[in-house]
Amino acid sequence: MITKFAFVGFRHPHIFDMYQRCRERDDVEIVACCEEDASTRSEQASRDDLEITHESFAAMLEETECDVVAVGDSYGLRADRIIAALERGRHVISDKPICISLAELDRIEEVAKQKNCIVGCMLDMRDLPVFLGLRELIKQGEIGEVQAISFDGQHPLNYGKRPMWYFEPGMHGGVINDIAVHALDFIPWASGLAIRDLNAARGWNGTVPQHPDFQQCGQGMLTLENGAGVIFDVSYLTPDSIGYTMPIYWRFTIWGADGVLEAGFNTPQITIFKNGEDAPRPVELPAGKPGSYLESFLQEINGGTDLHLSSADVLKASRISLEVQALADRSG
Fold first, then answer.
1. What average pLDDT does the structure give for the chain?
2. In whole angstroms, what is the distance from residue 52 CA to residue 36 CA?
3. Distance between alpha carbon 145 and the CA centroid of its chain, in Å?
4. Alpha carbon distances (Å) from 50 to 30, 47, 53, 209
5. Which among 45, 114, 103, 113 is positioned nearest to 79, based on CA atoms?
6. Which of 90, 59, 70 is nearest to 8 (CA)?
7. Going by fewer Cβ within 10 Å, which terminus of the chain is more open, N or C?
8. Torsion angles phi and psi, residue 46, rounded to 5
9. In degrees, to the nearest 5, what angle opens at C-alpha 178 toward C-alphas 163 and 246?
10. pLDDT tens digit string along 111-165?
11. What is residue 331's predicted lDDT score, i.e. its pLDDT?
12. Would you tell me how many other CB atoms lie within 10 Å of the CB of residue 223?
């Protein structure tokens, strides 16, 4: 069975991961691509793997027979794209975040339920070897019940290279919703513990005074259902020259009743510090599951139920992320 995809928005490079995966699949056909922003169309014109077929999203929806609309537009535009597609009975899969306000998410959930449509998202932290390994060690009971988690998800700002719409009022929506959504999806999935309480969150502008409304930095503190604590920082403060290579890029420390796990995106292994053992123990990483966010979405729209990532997971992580962001906005 061939699933027909129409893409809207290429203003964030993340969307090209999904686009290329769709191109490589025998069970997916890309039938249309829309980019309304003229400068982005010009930037992408040199690509030999992308043909922009529409300059109007409304026209693409009206003219194109498709099963799925894939969304990679500016964050502030995504909710309108998603809702319009859902209202026409199309399933939707988006880069993260899928929207920038709780009111937008409420409407997305409402229309998806009315139209019996699936909402997918590129929450690919679940697909990566180090995070699959952390989850498996927790499930095996290597450190006992989880008692505390700390994670660092700092990114480089790359001002001047990053799309400038990030800094337009109403387009970005806050650094916590932008970045932390990955971890707020991963933690309940890996630990088996739901997030119970949002204790504190803060967002602020540190080094970009020319864009005073841009929330560059974000920190938060949460409680899991068993009382375990979570504390995090997801600021855009990594030196641009270092980029994404720092050891603390997406680094997790997970304390359990019987030991500690530590690993991150750039660590070649997971380290266990276990009670009863007198030295740290390295654990090799398992194989990754690249593209499982897309595979799960395709399975779900075709009736699958045993899923690596479900529409319900996407909507739950999005809601928690937006609630923490709202808390940070109020505290600011």
1. 97
2. 10
3. 26
4. 10, 6, 9, 36
5. 103
6. 70
7. N
8. -80, -10
9. 80
10. 999 999 999 999 999 999 999 999 999 999 999 999 999 999 999 999 999 999 9
11. 83
12. 15
Question: How far apart, in whole angstroms, are the C-alpha atoms of residue 175 and residue 209?
Answer: 16
Tens-digit pLDDT profile for residues 303-328 = 999 999 999 999 999 999 999 999 99
The pair of structure tokens assigned to 256 is 């359990």
CA distance 274 to 186: 23
Cβ(172)–Cβ(215) under 8 Å? yes
Tens of pLDDT, residue by residue over 18-43, are 999 999 999 999 999 999 999 999 99
Total count of residues recorded for the chain: 332
Yes or no: say if 90 and 69 are a contact pair by the CB < 8 Å rule. Answer: yes
Token pair listed for 104: 């937008």
Q: Report whether 232 contacts 150 (CB < 8 A).
A: yes
Cα Rg of the chain (Å, integer): 20
129 near 286, Cβ under 8 Å? yes
Domains and CATH numbers, the chain: 3-117 (3.40.50.720), 125-289+322-331 (3.30.360.10)
pTM, whole model, 2 decimals?
A: 0.96
